Amino acid sequence: MLILRRTDVAHVLSGQELEIVDLVADAYRLHDEGRSSLPHSTFLRFPEERHSRDRIIGLPAYTGGPDPVAGIKWIASFPGNLNEGTERASASIILNSLGNGRPTAFLEGAVVSAKRTAASAALAARELTSDEPPVSVLLIGCGVINLEILRFLAAVLPGLSEAALYDTDPERAAAFATRCAREVPRVKAHPIDALDAALTEHRLVSLATTAAEPHMDLTGCGPGTTVLHISLRDLSADAVLGAVNVVDDVDHVCRERTSLHLAELAVGHRGFVHATIGGLLRGTASLTREPDRPVVCSPFGLGVLDMALAEFVRRRAEEQGLGIRVDDFLPA
Protein backbone atom coordinates (compact mmCIF):
# COMPACT_ATOMS: atom_id res chain seq x y z
CA MET A 1 0.00 0.00 0.00
CA LEU A 2 1.37 3.39 -1.01
CA ILE A 3 0.23 6.29 1.19
CA LEU A 4 0.45 9.72 -0.42
CA ARG A 5 0.16 12.77 1.79
CA ARG A 6 -1.17 16.15 0.75
CA THR A 7 2.37 17.44 0.18
CA ASP A 8 3.12 14.48 -2.11
CA VAL A 9 -0.03 14.99 -4.17
CA ALA A 10 0.48 18.74 -4.41
CA HIS A 11 4.10 18.25 -5.51
CA VAL A 12 3.10 15.91 -8.34
CA LEU A 13 0.32 18.18 -9.62
CA SER A 14 2.03 21.55 -9.26
CA GLY A 15 2.31 23.36 -12.59
CA GLN A 16 0.60 20.53 -14.50
CA GLU A 17 -2.59 22.39 -15.44
CA LEU A 18 -2.56 21.67 -19.17
CA GLU A 19 -1.72 18.00 -18.67
CA ILE A 20 -4.52 17.66 -16.10
CA VAL A 21 -7.02 19.28 -18.49
CA ASP A 22 -6.02 16.79 -21.21
CA LEU A 23 -6.40 13.90 -18.75
CA VAL A 24 -9.87 15.11 -17.72
CA ALA A 25 -10.87 15.44 -21.38
CA ASP A 26 -9.77 11.86 -22.03
CA ALA A 27 -11.80 10.63 -19.03
CA TYR A 28 -14.89 12.44 -20.35
CA ARG A 29 -14.42 10.84 -23.77
CA LEU A 30 -14.12 7.36 -22.23
CA HIS A 31 -17.25 7.98 -20.19
CA ASP A 32 -19.16 9.12 -23.27
CA GLU A 33 -18.01 5.98 -25.09
CA GLY A 34 -19.41 3.81 -22.30
CA ARG A 35 -15.95 2.66 -21.16
CA SER A 36 -16.51 3.52 -17.51
CA SER A 37 -18.55 2.36 -14.56
CA LEU A 38 -20.09 5.04 -12.39
CA PRO A 39 -22.62 4.14 -9.69
CA HIS A 40 -24.55 6.97 -8.12
CA SER A 41 -22.73 8.83 -5.39
CA THR A 42 -23.73 8.04 -1.81
CA PHE A 43 -24.60 11.06 0.34
CA LEU A 44 -24.13 10.57 4.07
CA ARG A 45 -26.10 13.18 6.01
CA PHE A 46 -26.73 13.59 9.73
CA PRO A 47 -29.95 13.94 11.74
CA GLU A 48 -28.77 16.69 14.12
CA GLU A 49 -29.67 20.29 13.27
CA ARG A 50 -26.10 21.45 13.86
CA HIS A 51 -25.04 19.24 10.94
CA SER A 52 -27.84 20.31 8.59
CA ARG A 53 -25.39 21.66 5.97
CA ASP A 54 -22.75 18.97 6.42
CA ARG A 55 -22.35 15.85 4.32
CA ILE A 56 -19.85 13.17 3.34
CA ILE A 57 -20.06 11.78 -0.18
CA GLY A 58 -18.75 8.49 -1.52
CA LEU A 59 -17.92 8.37 -5.24
CA PRO A 60 -16.96 4.89 -6.51
CA ALA A 61 -15.81 4.74 -10.12
CA TYR A 62 -13.97 2.78 -12.79
CA THR A 63 -12.25 4.40 -15.77
CA GLY A 64 -11.17 2.21 -18.68
CA GLY A 65 -8.85 2.99 -21.56
CA PRO A 66 -5.08 2.47 -21.76
CA ASP A 67 -4.60 3.12 -18.01
CA PRO A 68 -7.67 1.55 -16.36
CA VAL A 69 -8.26 2.33 -12.70
CA ALA A 70 -10.89 1.61 -10.05
CA GLY A 71 -11.42 3.13 -6.63
CA ILE A 72 -13.48 5.43 -4.46
CA LYS A 73 -13.32 9.02 -3.22
CA TRP A 74 -14.71 9.80 0.23
CA ILE A 75 -15.16 13.57 0.49
CA ALA A 76 -16.57 15.60 3.36
CA SER A 77 -18.14 19.05 3.00
CA PHE A 78 -18.50 20.96 6.27
CA PRO A 79 -19.19 24.62 5.34
CA GLY A 80 -18.87 25.74 8.96
CA ASN A 81 -15.15 25.03 8.77
CA LEU A 82 -14.74 28.32 6.92
CA ASN A 83 -15.73 30.23 10.04
CA GLU A 84 -13.00 28.38 11.93
CA GLY A 85 -10.36 29.25 9.37
CA THR A 86 -10.08 25.74 7.92
CA GLU A 87 -11.02 24.38 4.49
CA ARG A 88 -14.62 23.37 3.83
CA ALA A 89 -13.73 20.09 2.12
CA SER A 90 -11.47 17.19 3.04
CA ALA A 91 -11.12 13.95 1.14
CA SER A 92 -9.34 10.65 0.76
CA ILE A 93 -9.07 8.30 -2.22
CA ILE A 94 -8.47 4.56 -2.31
CA LEU A 95 -7.26 2.90 -5.54
CA ASN A 96 -7.71 -0.83 -6.08
CA SER A 97 -5.76 -3.33 -8.17
CA LEU A 98 -7.66 -4.59 -11.19
CA GLY A 99 -5.64 -7.81 -10.93
CA ASN A 100 -6.73 -8.96 -7.48
CA GLY A 101 -8.94 -6.16 -6.14
CA ARG A 102 -6.60 -5.29 -3.31
CA PRO A 103 -6.07 -1.63 -2.36
CA THR A 104 -2.86 -0.30 -3.87
CA ALA A 105 -2.81 3.34 -2.78
CA PHE A 106 -4.36 5.69 -0.24
CA LEU A 107 -4.20 9.36 -1.24
CA GLU A 108 -5.10 12.66 0.33
CA GLY A 109 -7.98 13.55 -1.99
CA ALA A 110 -8.83 17.22 -1.51
CA VAL A 111 -6.06 18.40 -3.84
CA VAL A 112 -7.09 15.85 -6.48
CA SER A 113 -10.73 16.88 -6.09
CA ALA A 114 -10.00 20.60 -6.40
CA LYS A 115 -7.69 20.14 -9.40
CA ARG A 116 -10.06 17.89 -11.35
CA THR A 117 -12.98 20.24 -10.59
CA ALA A 118 -11.01 23.22 -11.84
CA ALA A 119 -9.74 21.33 -14.87
CA SER A 120 -13.27 20.29 -15.88
CA ALA A 121 -14.45 23.90 -15.52
CA ALA A 122 -11.54 25.24 -17.57
CA LEU A 123 -12.06 22.56 -20.21
CA ALA A 124 -15.73 23.53 -20.50
CA ALA A 125 -14.82 27.21 -20.69
CA ARG A 126 -12.31 26.57 -23.47
CA GLU A 127 -14.71 24.42 -25.49
CA LEU A 128 -17.77 26.62 -25.02
CA THR A 129 -16.01 29.93 -25.77
CA SER A 130 -13.69 28.79 -28.57
CA ASP A 131 -15.33 31.13 -31.11
CA GLU A 132 -14.65 34.20 -28.97
CA PRO A 133 -12.38 33.48 -25.96
CA PRO A 134 -13.12 35.78 -23.00
CA VAL A 135 -10.61 38.27 -21.61
CA SER A 136 -12.24 38.44 -18.16
CA VAL A 137 -14.08 36.22 -15.70
CA LEU A 138 -16.46 36.87 -12.81
CA LEU A 139 -15.77 34.54 -9.89
CA ILE A 140 -18.70 34.21 -7.48
CA GLY A 141 -17.55 32.57 -4.25
CA CYS A 142 -14.04 33.31 -3.00
CA GLY A 143 -12.76 29.93 -1.88
CA VAL A 144 -10.39 27.13 -2.81
CA ILE A 145 -12.31 25.95 -5.86
CA ASN A 146 -12.55 29.32 -7.61
CA LEU A 147 -8.86 29.93 -6.92
CA GLU A 148 -8.03 26.68 -8.70
CA ILE A 149 -10.49 27.52 -11.47
CA LEU A 150 -8.74 30.85 -12.00
CA ARG A 151 -5.38 29.07 -12.16
CA PHE A 152 -6.66 26.61 -14.78
CA LEU A 153 -8.51 29.29 -16.76
CA ALA A 154 -5.28 31.28 -17.00
CA ALA A 155 -3.60 28.17 -18.44
CA VAL A 156 -6.21 27.38 -21.11
CA LEU A 157 -7.28 30.94 -22.00
CA PRO A 158 -4.09 32.87 -22.86
CA GLY A 159 -6.03 36.12 -23.38
CA LEU A 160 -7.57 36.13 -19.90
CA SER A 161 -6.37 39.26 -18.11
CA GLU A 162 -9.02 40.21 -15.50
CA ALA A 163 -10.96 38.49 -12.71
CA ALA A 164 -13.78 40.23 -10.85
CA LEU A 165 -14.34 38.69 -7.41
CA TYR A 166 -17.64 38.56 -5.53
CA ASP A 167 -18.42 37.03 -2.15
CA THR A 168 -21.17 37.62 0.38
CA ASP A 169 -18.32 38.42 2.80
CA PRO A 170 -16.47 41.47 1.42
CA GLU A 171 -13.47 40.83 3.67
CA ARG A 172 -13.10 37.36 2.23
CA ALA A 173 -13.23 38.80 -1.28
CA ALA A 174 -10.48 41.30 -0.43
CA ALA A 175 -8.25 38.60 1.06
CA PHE A 176 -8.96 36.40 -1.94
CA ALA A 177 -7.82 39.16 -4.30
CA THR A 178 -4.48 39.26 -2.48
CA ARG A 179 -4.08 35.51 -2.82
CA CYS A 180 -4.99 35.59 -6.51
CA ALA A 181 -2.39 38.28 -7.13
CA ARG A 182 0.23 36.08 -5.47
CA GLU A 183 -0.70 32.77 -7.11
CA VAL A 184 -2.06 33.85 -10.52
CA PRO A 185 -0.23 37.15 -11.08
CA ARG A 186 -0.90 37.29 -14.83
CA VAL A 187 -4.61 37.94 -14.20
CA LYS A 188 -5.57 41.20 -12.50
CA ALA A 189 -8.02 40.22 -9.73
CA HIS A 190 -10.16 42.74 -7.89
CA PRO A 191 -13.18 42.53 -5.55
CA ILE A 192 -16.53 44.01 -6.56
CA ASP A 193 -19.69 45.01 -4.67
CA ALA A 194 -22.31 45.21 -7.45
CA LEU A 195 -23.04 41.67 -8.62
CA ASP A 196 -25.81 42.58 -11.07
CA ALA A 197 -23.58 45.04 -12.93
CA ALA A 198 -20.75 42.50 -13.05
CA LEU A 199 -23.01 39.85 -14.58
CA THR A 200 -23.65 42.26 -17.44
CA GLU A 201 -19.98 43.12 -17.92
CA HIS A 202 -18.34 39.67 -17.96
CA ARG A 203 -19.05 36.96 -20.53
CA LEU A 204 -17.55 34.17 -18.40
CA VAL A 205 -18.90 33.49 -14.90
CA SER A 206 -17.83 30.83 -12.40
CA LEU A 207 -20.16 29.92 -9.54
CA ALA A 208 -18.38 28.04 -6.75
CA THR A 209 -20.21 28.72 -3.50
CA THR A 210 -21.46 26.76 -0.49
CA ALA A 211 -25.12 27.54 -1.30
CA ALA A 212 -27.56 24.78 -0.38
CA GLU A 213 -30.57 26.44 -2.03
CA PRO A 214 -31.02 28.55 -5.21
CA HIS A 215 -30.32 32.23 -4.61
CA MET A 216 -29.89 33.86 -8.02
CA ASP A 217 -31.10 34.01 -11.60
CA LEU A 218 -29.31 35.01 -14.79
CA THR A 219 -31.53 37.80 -16.07
CA GLY A 220 -28.65 40.26 -15.78
CA CYS A 221 -26.28 38.30 -18.00
CA GLY A 222 -25.22 39.93 -21.23
CA PRO A 223 -25.37 38.25 -24.66
CA GLY A 224 -23.02 35.33 -25.14
CA THR A 225 -22.46 34.67 -21.44
CA THR A 226 -21.09 31.28 -20.38
CA VAL A 227 -21.76 30.25 -16.78
CA LEU A 228 -19.72 27.55 -15.06
CA HIS A 229 -22.24 26.36 -12.48
CA ILE A 230 -19.77 24.38 -10.37
CA SER A 231 -21.58 24.39 -7.02
CA LEU A 232 -24.79 23.17 -8.72
CA ARG A 233 -27.32 24.73 -6.32
CA ASP A 234 -27.01 28.46 -6.96
CA LEU A 235 -29.46 28.92 -9.83
CA SER A 236 -33.24 28.94 -9.70
CA ALA A 237 -35.14 26.36 -11.72
CA ASP A 238 -36.36 29.16 -14.00
CA ALA A 239 -32.76 30.23 -14.64
CA VAL A 240 -31.86 26.69 -15.66
CA LEU A 241 -34.93 26.37 -17.89
CA GLY A 242 -34.09 29.67 -19.55
CA ALA A 243 -30.53 28.64 -20.42
CA VAL A 244 -28.77 26.40 -22.93
CA ASN A 245 -27.55 23.63 -20.62
CA VAL A 246 -24.45 21.45 -20.80
CA VAL A 247 -23.69 18.75 -18.20
CA ASP A 248 -21.19 15.94 -17.73
CA ASP A 249 -23.79 13.25 -17.02
CA VAL A 250 -27.54 13.89 -17.13
CA ASP A 251 -28.50 11.12 -14.73
CA HIS A 252 -25.95 12.09 -12.10
CA VAL A 253 -26.55 15.83 -12.13
CA CYS A 254 -30.35 15.58 -11.87
CA ARG A 255 -30.27 14.32 -8.29
CA GLU A 256 -30.04 15.50 -4.68
CA ARG A 257 -31.96 18.74 -5.30
CA THR A 258 -29.38 20.37 -7.54
CA SER A 259 -30.71 23.28 -9.58
CA LEU A 260 -31.13 20.93 -12.54
CA HIS A 261 -33.00 18.42 -10.39
CA LEU A 262 -35.37 21.20 -9.30
CA ALA A 263 -35.85 22.17 -12.94
CA GLU A 264 -36.68 18.56 -13.78
CA LEU A 265 -39.20 18.41 -10.93
CA ALA A 266 -40.79 21.62 -12.22
CA VAL A 267 -41.34 20.43 -15.81
CA GLY A 268 -41.32 16.65 -15.48
CA HIS A 269 -38.55 15.92 -18.00
CA ARG A 270 -34.87 16.53 -18.79
CA GLY A 271 -35.29 17.97 -22.26
CA PHE A 272 -33.76 21.25 -21.12
CA VAL A 273 -30.31 19.58 -21.16
CA HIS A 274 -28.86 20.18 -24.61
CA ALA A 275 -25.50 18.37 -24.58
CA THR A 276 -22.89 16.58 -22.51
CA ILE A 277 -19.25 17.61 -22.29
CA GLY A 278 -18.09 14.19 -23.47
CA GLY A 279 -20.46 14.35 -26.43
CA LEU A 280 -19.13 17.77 -27.44
CA LEU A 281 -15.54 16.55 -27.16
CA ARG A 282 -16.24 13.47 -29.27
CA GLY A 283 -18.42 15.26 -31.80
CA THR A 284 -21.45 13.11 -30.98
CA ALA A 285 -23.28 16.21 -29.76
CA SER A 286 -23.39 19.83 -30.89
CA LEU A 287 -24.43 23.09 -29.31
CA THR A 288 -26.08 26.14 -30.84
CA ARG A 289 -25.78 29.40 -28.96
CA GLU A 290 -28.79 31.69 -28.76
CA PRO A 291 -28.13 35.42 -28.32
CA ASP A 292 -30.69 35.93 -25.56
CA ARG A 293 -29.87 32.78 -23.55
CA PRO A 294 -26.73 32.09 -21.50
CA VAL A 295 -24.93 28.77 -21.83
CA VAL A 296 -24.78 27.09 -18.41
CA CYS A 297 -22.35 24.23 -17.80
CA SER A 298 -23.26 22.22 -14.69
CA PRO A 299 -20.73 19.41 -14.13
CA PHE A 300 -21.69 17.05 -11.33
CA GLY A 301 -18.07 16.15 -10.73
CA LEU A 302 -17.78 12.57 -11.87
CA GLY A 303 -15.76 10.04 -9.92
CA VAL A 304 -14.11 8.87 -13.14
CA LEU A 305 -12.16 12.13 -13.15
CA ASP A 306 -10.93 11.56 -9.59
CA MET A 307 -9.80 8.03 -10.39
CA ALA A 308 -8.00 9.04 -13.57
CA LEU A 309 -6.16 11.87 -11.82
CA ALA A 310 -5.42 9.81 -8.71
CA GLU A 311 -3.86 7.07 -10.86
CA PHE A 312 -1.78 9.74 -12.63
CA VAL A 313 -0.58 10.93 -9.21
CA ARG A 314 0.17 7.38 -8.04
CA ARG A 315 2.30 6.58 -11.08
CA ARG A 316 4.22 9.86 -10.94
CA ALA A 317 4.74 9.54 -7.17
CA GLU A 318 6.21 6.05 -7.56
CA GLU A 319 8.53 7.28 -10.30
CA GLN A 320 9.70 10.11 -8.02
CA GLY A 321 9.99 8.00 -4.86
CA LEU A 322 7.31 9.95 -2.99
CA GLY A 323 4.98 8.74 -0.26
CA ILE A 324 5.12 6.10 2.43
CA ARG A 325 4.99 2.41 1.55
CA VAL A 326 3.34 0.07 4.04
CA ASP A 327 4.18 -3.47 2.90
CA ASP A 328 2.29 -5.26 5.70
CA PHE A 329 -1.03 -3.40 5.35
CA LEU A 330 -2.59 -6.64 4.07
CA PRO A 331 -1.68 -10.27 4.74
CA ALA A 332 1.11 -11.61 2.57
Task: Please describe what this structure looks like.
The chain folds into two domains: 134 residues, ornithine cyclodeaminase, domain 1 (2-Layer Sandwich); 181 residues, NAD(P)-binding Rossmann-like Domain (Rossmann fold), CATH 3.40.50. Helix content is 36%, strand content 23%. The protein starts with a strand and ends in a 7-residue tail after the last strand. The mean pLDDT is 95. Helix 1 runs parallel beside helix 3, helix 2 packs across helix 11 and helix 3 packs across helix 4. Strands 1, 2, 3, 4, 5, 6, 7 and 16 form an eight-stranded mixed sheet that branches. The longest helix has 19 residues. It contains eleven helices and 16 strands. The radius of gyration is 19 Å and the shape is globular. It is of the alpha/beta class and 332 residues long. Helix 4 links the parallel strand 8 and strand 9.
Question: How would you summarize this macromolecular structure in one to three sentences?
Answer:
This protein has eleven helices and 16 strands. It has helices at residues 6-13, 17-32, 110-128, 144-156, 170-183, 195-201, 237-241, 250-253, 259-267, 277-282, 303-320, and strands at 2-4, 36-37, 42-44, 55-63, 69-77, 89-96, 103-108, 136-140, 162-166, 188-191, 204-207, 226-229, 244-247, 273-276, 295-298, 324-325.
